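Q: Joint fold for the lines below.
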Amino acid sequence: MITLARSVRFEEVDAAGIVFFARFFAYAHEAMEAFFADVDGGYAGLIMTRRVGLPAVKTAAEYASPLRYGESFRIETTATRVGGRSADLRYVFASGDRHVAVVTHTVVTSDLVAMRSCEMPDDVRRVLERHLVEVSEA
Amino acid sequence: MITLARSVRFEEVDAAGIVFFARFFAYAHEAMEAFFADVDGGYAGLIMTRRVGLPAVKTAAEYASPLRYGESFRIETTATRVGGRSADLRYVFASGDRHVAVVTHTVVTSDLVAMRSCEMPDDVRRVLERHLVEVSEA
Amino acid sequence: MITLARSVRFEEVDAAGIVFFARFFAYAHEAMEAFFADVDGGYAGLIMTRRVGLPAVKTAAEYASPLRYGESFRIETTATRVGGRSADLRYVFASGDRHVAVVTHTVVTSDLVAMRSCEMPDDVRRVLERHLVEVSEA
Amino acid sequence: MITLARSVRFEEVDAAGIVFFARFFAYAHEAMEAFFADVDGGYAGLIMTRRVGLPAVKTAAEYASPLRYGESFRIETTATRVGGRSADLRYVFASGDRHVAVVTHTVVTSDLVAMRSCEMPDDVRRVLERHLVEVSEA
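A: Joint structure:
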């Protein structure tokens, strides 16, 4: 599990005064960049130099409690499945003791030049396997 | 079904050169604002004057084909379930003949002052029922 | 003058309940995409196919009156200077009779592959000259 | 001077592959939240609890060198003028030895309920005066 700590910023809320529901996926991506920090060249190097990306084929969120401007929260990232070319990530959002949201995310390792799936690089697989957990629910 | 036509804007892509996966939810919300355009005062009036919102409790996306800067696409919005205080919306994204993505979205009518669920206003229900479809898959 | 009509969307406000000040520049860029709609391939074609861009070297805004969620506004775009490789654009924001903001924007025609300035393409120059106005103030 | 260290995130670039020009103002605001971290309740407390904000009346940027995905940069924030109800902030962006951009920002202390200017709170003034510098150019 890799944990990212974060606060809600000024422009991340919507007209209802809570963090915009779409933004949880941007937060999750931020957590994913931290999750893969240890691959060769970091996650940015994977994208920009090695031209391998992890586009989403599927994602979902369940929202339990809203976040407001200024609130601190953390995102705990784990892998819940590691396949040949794809993997499932899981991001659990909490603020103190309060459960906030869960995001799930299926990514496929992809050649960004050809824009098609490719074998998962070994260092990407190693990070995923190091943080692989079993989840009881689907 | 309410259809929203849109083009990908300059800043809506990511470092992989395709529309950022989180942005499909912002696009879906834009389609939802168009979907509810006919409620009293429009969707913005619902939020700002009537102080009733439709926060997400659950959302999901399946991505079939990436969108790039400048591409035109459309979002077809329908309701797939209308409950007492909640409803399911479904947004189908396509660019010409190409299927792009599907977003699903469970919202709960909520009193934005008390920030708790409330009875669904009649005009909100009417819009949902007018565009209610049966979906074969879950 | 090219006019773009727009409404404030749900997620475009900040925790103070008004359109986030940085977003006026994104709105201005949206107006610029409309301004250059007539170049060969449209503005997106200029960027993606012809690989010529108009990165900002300078920009500024003056805010007269805040915008809130749901408000309609328009952006009137003109050129105020056309040089050899650069130009000044001016975006006047208004909502009904109410003056909202002015954004100014100096762009340089640039080869996006080499990422350095280039001669201004003729069709870009023609659009600028067609909408060139004199401004009394600096 | 308060320094904020930051990396460019995946979704912060545009279709030209560089950080979108509008985003520098969002970065500047992030630096401003760090700048005012020491006021009573932090900057978020100022907005959310004390209902005092610092809306922009004027802002500007000069761009010297583009930022790309994954690059690290820092923002050095100072005050360049402290008035009765308004102040000027200056944000200098650099990546290593490379100068990236300068943003200037005039803000007015405002009562967010009445949405009009108000006396500058003492703790806001103290932060500004502690980091006040003279600038040679305008």
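Q: Anything notable?
A: Residues 2-130 of chain B form a domain with the Thiol Ester Dehydrase; Chain A fold (CATH 3.10.129.10). Helices of chain B lie at 23-35, 42-48, 122-130.
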